[in-house]
Design goal:
Layout: E1 2-4, E2 7-9, H1 11-16, E3 32-36, E4 49-57, E5 66-70, E6 75-79
């Protein structure tokens, strides 16, 4: 925190006037979430999600795209469709 003109804020906030956009999408590592698996032909009452664990953030994507690990298949999904 830096004080400029009697206003205490971070350097980023002084320079750009607000918080970075990616701060809205921060999650805890190891957090359990349901990943939506979209298929073209799925029954109305079928399960459309898989329980997964958050293991990281996707590089070269927007800030709301995550790496989600499925412990059953041991596969990592890169997705933003999580609940």
């Amino acid at each position: 925190m830096v004080t400029v003109n009697s206003k205490r804020a971070t350097k980023y906030q002084h320079m750009f006037g607000g918080k970075p956009q990616w701060t809205k999408h921060l999650r805890l590592f190891g957090e359990a979430r349901t990943v939506k698996m979209s298929t073209r032909r799925s029954a109305k009452l079928a399960n459309r999600g898989l329980p997964c664990m958050m293991v990281g953030y996707a590089e070269n994507h927007d800030s709301d795209v995550y790496h989600m690990w499925n412990p059953v298949t041991e596969h990592v999904h890169v997705t933003r469709d999580i609940i």
